[in-house]
Amino acid sequence: MPALAPPRPAAQRRRSWGYTAVPRWIYAVAAVGALFILLPLMGMVSQVKWGQFLALISSESSLAALLLSLKTATASTSLCIIFGVPLALVLARAQFVGQRVLRALILLPLVVPPVVGGLALLYTFGRQGLLGQSLQVLGIEIAFSTAAVVMAQTFVALPFLVLSLEGTLRTAGQKYEAVAATLGARPSTVLRRITLPLVLPGLVSGAVLAFARSLGEFGATLTFAGSLQGVTRTLPLEIYLQRETDPEAAVALSFLLIAVAAVVVTVTYRVPKSPLRALLAGPAS
Amino acid sequence: MKLFAMESAGPNVLGANRLRMRLRLGAAAALLALVPLALGLAGCAPAGPPGTDTTSGAGSTPVVSELSGTLNVYAAASLKETFTELAAQFQAQHPKVEVSLSFDGSSTLVTQISQGAPADVFASADTATMTKLSDAGLAQGSPVDFASNVLTLVVPPGNPANINSFADVAKPGVKLVVCAPKVPCGAASTSDAASAGLMLKPVSEELSVTGVLGKVTSGEADAGLVYVTDAKAAGAKVLSIPLDLPKPTVNHYPIAAVESSKAGQLAQGFIALVTGAQGQKVLQDAGFGAP
After folding, report:
1. Mind telling me how many Å the CA of B174 is from chain A's nearest CA?
2. Structural domain tally of chain B?
3. A228: which chain B residues are within 8 Å (Cβ-Cβ)?
4. What is the model's pTM?
5. What ipTM does the predicted assembly reach?
6. Which CATH number fits the domain that encloses residue B226?
7. Hey, are the CB atoms on B218 and A241 less than 8 Å from each other?
8. A-chain residues within 8 Å CB-CB of B111?
């Protein structure tokens, strides 16, 4: 069992994983796949009017949209972590009737068009919705508020975190958790000292995906939250609106959105390592 | 389509199940082959999908048309109902012609046409957007106005905020939704508010008139400003309150053939139908004003 092997020096470790089982022709097909994503990006960048770039993105409405997008995406990512981690734990570790159905339903926002998600939120939290009237009695009105934007983003982004974390939890297995339990650790201690440190890379990449998805959210926000500068009009909505009258500003803002997303993802996203390899690299403590 | 979805959701279809799968796919193909037949039968319905065979409707016109081919009509989203009907009438008059319709926001369509989309006719919801097409040298001749539209106030059934006039939307606490000033219906809202001497404080400035209508029909907003044709099409889902302005902002709808079109004769024929008595009746039945 490699997991139980003693830690080896770094140089030796790297060589032992040096073999790449990728036939040459795979690179050619992979290049086509990569170009399919990269060419449209280059096409857009070629349309950016660099001379006026700063002027185009620093208008009052653009800055308000950028700021709102960053704020709401941060808030919704936090919500995704708060609710997504327990959800992934329950799906990966617990066993109960209807688990498969529950998983399928929770992943639904990945497949339904965001506009449909927005409608679903509207029919639940809207004024005439399922919970809307009770909320109104409590004096809570969600529609047309920044809270509605955060809810729409959380709705579409949560599955990304749950999916990513559940996969990592399953690959990590329960060996170490079981050992800790036999040594007398209580479930909460096992979670804090063993499980979470072990799956941290998966959690981080899940959170980054959720943040990126929140940043790009358009349909659910438009349907559920509306569009008002500084309150609900996030960067994607501003881009759509600018396109009506000022395509150059829309292109500049699109580039800004892509740049922000690319920086966030490149800096923080790591392909989740197999937990066994993570352990080989050094015990998670 | 449904059959294929069932395939992928089914259990493991490898190995011994492969033959069964092929049989099932065969059944699916046989069913799919029936689809055009079903569409052909549905083609005589007035709101049938564009591009379907309407030979069954041709009996009403004894003159056999010489025109044939495909006509691509790009039209503003607010023309969806009327142009779908007019396309069906056009196909009924010219059985060998297929009209393909594309509806979207006027500026989206102009962007698509300037990027080479195969449009033959373009109908815009405002003059400014048509001017963009003409300025880019993509319109044949000068565009012709064929309809007009004005704004109206709509409220959800039951009128929760008790709105009885345009001035009431400025009352504190009223959740008003309008189009953003950058889109045509928003520009009209701004100038109508100015001519009524009102300061509008909307809770949302939507990106399209459909967005406004959706917020009102779902009861989320207390009031919204939409075109009279949108209010009429929404039926009982909204209550309409006229703005009663002495000089309302009128949006003119121009239509033009696209310069790059290879179906010039068809395009002119369709424009003649829209601007002629037959087209005008359809448009005015839907609430559009005279051009």
Report:
1. 13
2. 3
3. 202-205
4. 0.76
5. 0.76
6. 3.40.190.10
7. no
8. 243, 247
